[in-house]
Amino acid sequence: MIKKITMLCLMFSMLYVTGQTTPGLYTIKNLDINTKESDFGTAFLGKDRVIFAAPTTNTMIVKKTWKENGQQFLDLYTGLITDDRQLIQKKRMPGDVNTKYHEAGVAVSKDLKTIYYTANNFYEKQYLTDSTGVNNLQMFRASLDLEGKWTEKEKLPFNHVEYSIGHPALNHDDTKLYFVSDMPGGFGQADIYVVDINEDGSFGAPRNLGPKINTEGREMFPYIGKDNILYFSSDGHSGYGKLDIFATKIFDTTVSVPLSLEEPVNSIEDDFAFIIDDEKDRGFFSSNRDEGKGDDDIYSFLASPGLHIHCGQAITVNVKSEDSGEPVAGATIELRNESGEVMETVTADADGSYTFASTLCDMPYVVFATNKGFLNAEKAVRTANDIDQSALVVNMNLPAQFVSNKVNINTIYFDFNKFNIREDAAKELDKVVQVMNEYPELLIEAGSHTDSRGKDKYNMKLSEKRAKATVDYIVSKGIDASRITYQGYGETQLVNDCSNGKKCSEDEHQLNRRTEFNINNESGFELVPTPQE
Question: What is the tens place of the pLDDT at every residue in 65-81?
């Protein structure tokens, strides 16, 4: 059969997993469009069409057949996907891609204007063979012109007359091209490689995907699905029979152990060319199983649920006093998602630490820590996109609540000539709210300042507006207005030498546009040492 002989021409640390890893459940259907010869290898052309390989229907006085099996040579066709997962409106692809020899194995760019495909080494009317007389497979790239034809056909630069390259697959942003080759230096008869696609359309150096994926046998027909999951066929990994379909997740520097998709996708015969729609969990694969209509047949499927491969990296949090460096036993630690939603709340151990073991790889989190007598602290982190990583260690230093006679927060800054509360200022004001909630008897004064630019009288009024804005924010968080007073100081208490007439940078002026919070002595509040100091 064509596909088998084509493949002969090609010679083509346990992962840390959290949650459930399952190949999914599949309902499959043989397509009406299949012929008695070989039909296989679909690729999505947008959301409602596919490209696939099928025996040529080109009208010639003398039809050419492949002498190895007497079947027609393969051409590329398109078909419309119906609601019941059939293919209709079969049309031969227009343009320069189809020749009198084989074309198959397509990858389509996201803008649907570029395709990569596999074909015999026949280019510009030259039929080239290697040193033993074999015509190896090569990869080509073509573009869609204004008339809807595939033109500007070109050979990829890493093709070689002495070995085969084919079965292209693109990642989701078209920056990497995966392919299959029997080039020297691989692990087996046919290996999967990847090459970077540069912005100008040129390529980097091909890289072998390594021994977790590639075996002594044949690894073929790669396809990149959602979440960077690589689907491929192999007869080297343990399976049901000949070629089986596997899936693995690709991380920054590692890959997960390949997972068989199991029955009914896999059978005792050859199963290959798996593709899946990321949104609808529907797709296609090819097989030469006995119940088919011809040699190789195309099957559609529905996945319910689809494949899930979860990778996790633990996050270890160590909470200490910023001043003393001693662990804060019993501190409350929250793990939040990027939106601020609390996912888990725990209490630190005696050594001030806790390990979150159920976090996902390549995900942003926020670690929040608090304890009585300290200001809150939070830190944004991101887990690694690799499966062989040790725990991510996050060191949280809790500041003392008071320094001298002031609430110990970072200075509240304002933009030039403005008094609105900036986002960075709001986070600091939330710390003032925390302290006032913790000490109901505490009274404070908000003192606001300006830089020296502008008239003295104007600056005094501007500083009063800034002081009032900070108080209004704190009161909006539930603090009684009677517990906090405010005062504007204009430019009378500069923190540097940027007075009238002095040339200073914008950063130097910014230091003077601030609000500070002093303990009101009339409250009778007495500072006590921070716990564990």
Answer: 544 555 789 999 999 99
- Burial of 398 from C-beta contacts in 10 A (0-12 / 13-18 / 19+): buried
Q: Does 192 lie in the same domain as 92?
A: yes
Asked whether the CA dihedral 63, 66, 70, 72 is positive or negative, the reply is: negative
Reduced DSSP (H G I as helix, E B as strand, rest coil) percent helix, strand, coil of the chain, to 5: 10, 40, 50
Q: Which of 383, 398, 413 finishes a domain?
A: 398
CA distance 489 to 487: 6
Closest CA to 367 of 349, 391, 329, 393: 393
18 and 115, same structural domain?
yes
Cα(94)–Cα(98) distance, rounded to whole angstroms? Answer: 8
Q: What is the pTM of this model?
A: 0.76
Residue 435 sits in the same domain as residue 352: no
pLDDT tens-place string over residues 185-229 = 999 999 999 999 999 999 999 999 999 999 999 999 999 988 899
Please say which residue of 358, 378, 398 terminates a domain: 398
Residue 40's DSSP bridge partners are 53
Give the domain range for residue 298.
Answer: 2-303
Q: In which element (H, E) is residue 430 found?
A: helix 423-438
Residue 533 lies in a domain: no
In the DSSP assignment, the letter for residue 222 is E
pLDDT-derived band at 285 (thresholds 50, 70, 90) equals: very high
